[in-house]
Every structure is written in structure tokens, then in C-alpha cells.
Specification:
This protein is mostly helical. Helix content is 74%, strand content 0%.
């Protein structure tokens, strides 16, 4: 496996980790509880930022990796 392939896998792993964290942070909260908890909101927002950063990096540096994905529009 090339260094570039390993980096792509690392970015995807970071995205999966961020999704898992978000799910863990909100799993026992309803909407009201979430809106009343700034700490959880900040944690979720930070992980959404991680998702966005990793996604943008993948699009920029690994454009060929997207040819196997399906559009869900």
C-alpha cells in the first residue's frame, strides 16, 4: 500500500471516528436536552468540522477516489 493510499484510509477513519463520536454524544438525548447542553453542542459541532475538513481534503487530494461512490441526490 502506498503512502497516499494509507493517508486516504486515515482520513476515512477520522471521518468514521467523528460519526461514531457524534452518535455516542447524542444517543440518549432528545432535541430539547441537546439544545440545553452547550457542551454536547460544541462537541458535535467540532466533529462535524472534522468531517468537513476530511471530506474537503479527500476531494482536493484524492479526486479519483470518488469514482466509486454513488450520488444520493
Amino acid at each position: 500500500m502506498s503512502k497516499d493510499q494509507q493517508r486516504l484510509i486515515d482520513y476515512l477513519a477520522h471521518m468514521l471516528q467523528a460519526i461514531e463520536r457524534i452518535n455516542r454524544y447524542i444517543e440518549d438525548l432528545d432535541e430539547v436536552a441537546f439544545l440545553q447542553n452547550e457542551l454536547v453542542q460544541d462537541a458535535v459541532l467540532r466533529n462535524l468540522e472534522i468531517l468537513g475538513e476530511a471530506s474537503n481534503t479527500i476531494q482536493k487530494h484524492y479526486p479519483d477516489s470518488q469514482h466509486n461512490t454513488r450520488s444520493y441526490h
